[in-house]
Protein 1
Amino acid sequence: MSNLNYDAIQVGDALPPLELPPVDRKMLALFAGASGDHNAVHIDIDYARRAGMPDVFAHGMLSMAWLGRLLTQWVDQRQLRQFGVRFVGITHLGHRIACTGRVVEKFEAAGEKRLRVEIQTANQYGEPRVVGDAVIALQ
């Protein structure tokens, strides 16, 4: 996390990317325990197959948590004013997820200098899994 200067940031600037290890069963079990989301489609292969999936897959909120980490490695959590996402694809076992973001707008609101950033997760094939945006207040 760094102390960013509003005047030095330009529309189009990229956030430092966050690369994650391949999604595996242990990761999903740990997230289920931490989040309290024990939906069987994320942890029980037989249940996932009965639901028409080839195997278990990652919780959508795990991907949102990774995007939260992308943002909070760039700015302090207290600077976040908005954070929202849309789930556009399934993150399967073995996917290597990269979280990226870029500044798309600079503006002032409520007496603060703010940035709007577009963020996303994508798998190793470049396919977006989660897309969204966040508003960040800077000094």
Protein 2
Amino acid sequence: MTRRSWKYRQPGSLRQAMEWNLEYARVKHQRSVDRVADLMGLSSKWSLYKWMESGRMPAILIRPFEQACGIDFITRYIGHSSHKLLIDIPTGKRGNGADINALQLSFTEAVGLLLRYYDGQAEAEDTLGALYTTMEQLAWHQGTIERHRQPGFEFGADMGGDE
């Protein structure tokens, strides 16, 4: 099986979310635990290791941790554990073929996992992750279309002044 994109991974626990954040920081940004702790403003990496071991982190440090790592697995886990969908704020820009292909791939993967789950061949955690991803992508497209339909201000255009 091919490795899924970081963007579509869905953590199953807070501890896994923290581990994936650090793994992403190491793989994509070449940041060590020391560097992540430094970017968070911590005096020592050992606090970070302690939080990883216990699976607990002060809420005020979640965003600095995610920003230092460059990805938001903890926020995703917290949202999904509360049965919420999380989408990026739609910009209203038109989607392109790559966006639609990614959506179609997400649907295909989710339906495949759903069929395998009901046959006892896939894990619930993987299946739920694929379903969350697909629903979030679909909601993003809905929000983008709604936002695209709304009139906006043309700040750069000539406003028809008396000059």
